[in-house]
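Intended use. Records like the one below are meant for learning the mapping from a protein sequence to its folded structure. Do not use them to infer anything beyond what is encoded.
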Amino acid sequence: MAHGPTGERLPTTLRGMGDARHPPLVGRQAELSALHHALSEAERGRGGVVVIEGEAGIGKTRLIEEAVAVVPTSRFSVRRAAAEELERVLPFGVMVNALRSGATDGDRRLGAVDDLLAGRRAEEASPLSGGGGEIRYRVVEELLALIEKLALEKPVLIVLEDLHWADPSSLLAVRALARRAVPLRIVLMCSLRPFPRTAELSAALDALRSESATFLRLGPLDDEEAVALVRSVVDLDRSERLRELAARAGGNPLFLVELGRVLIAGASADQAASPGGIPLPRSLREAILDRYRSLSDEAFRALQLGAVLGSSFEVADLVTCLNRSPMEVLPALEEAERAGVVTLEEEPVRFRHDLLQGVLYEEIGRAARRVLHRDAARALAAAGRPVEVIAPHVAIGASTGDIEAMEWLRRAGRRVAARAPSVAADFLGRALELSDPADPVTAEIGAELAVSLALAGQPTEALARAHDALALARDPATVGLLRWVLGSASAVLGRLTDALHYTELAAREEGLPPGRRARLLADVSQWRFYTGDVDEAETAAHSTVAEGRRSGD
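Structure written out for the chain above:
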């Protein structure tokens, strides 16, 4: 029995928790028709791009599931993945995961992509020494070649969910794929929230609009649809009361389903529908926490650490961080699945909705979260996990002056700099926050950060960071590198006189790494040419060739 706002008991009939976990799609017929139309067009030979935008819980995933459910694998190659917040540091993460989701032994190009990303090719040279800057574009070409090969056999559906968490490299691949989708029988289906909205994501969405992508914005359900959705979960014998309660959920399908869960559990309907905390209604937050409170201590602890690891996590990582055996952890996860909190259908384990993870994560408390992230980083490092998997936890768990954390973040920045410079900039920026300005290494970190910002296409920020680091730098190689950044960023901003000045100063520095002077002289030659000094440009060009031969570059 449920209770009304005034405390009276409202008779309810349970339709079943299975329905509450998998409610019907309500009120999205126009959007569903648009997705079906895109798929039908692909079968006729014309691909396309569809972007689904809406707040958390509004039904983006449910809409995609309904559309994909009617796609026969005999006629379509379906590849699907969701981006993760803590995996935004993994270059091409969501795109590679999507292609790997349906991969066969014949998809050899994925191996080539793995080689490039792991640096097992000659092109791995650090961008700080002048090489490796094109690796991202090589990877994009390998990914597109794989998709084009698939499209020769049958239409391809690629679903990328939670694009707001996508790494910058995946967004680069999305832009490239959108340009080729139409003639190649490829349907690219993406979902995202309105926020967060990075500069890279905004640029990608602008590019998709220029390619005539279809944008679907999911708004709240209307009153009739909201009542119908709640009725699909639980029967109430007073439709007026149900309409009042449903209206308080703001037309958000997830909130409405959670309202149904609260009523099934016999909680106060007033509690179940009152607006409350920010950003979630108190009703929803309490409903989610009630579900956690019903779990055993073992399951709750496992999920608490799982929430620290992210909205999805590998069982092996959870086992490592808990320092327990798999046989001890799996029953706890199975209990959580029965409670409708996570899904164990396939690796990684995934919270059924980001809000389930988010509420639990926020309940931990900021100080405790930092400790858990720090401990997770240490455990994952001891288990030999890649540095870019560990670094996000280090970034959250570290305190100012933590030299070990600073070195972890610096290593992570170097590892991904060639393939995801904006991610490298995030790591290096955090490392700089932890460093001591009096320590000579601070200037080196600042130089690496400035380089990553320049490679990421952020010249204004690169200039600022380079000037800051130059004031601290004493090592000639670091000074030369910073002046190169100042010259390159100035050139991008159209300040060729400044670019020439800084680049010539950089080329005169002693102790430059082999090959760097030749590259600097090449830039000098270009800037001389573009400023109209053709004779000096030719002289610099000859010097470039001679220096390149001497250094073996």
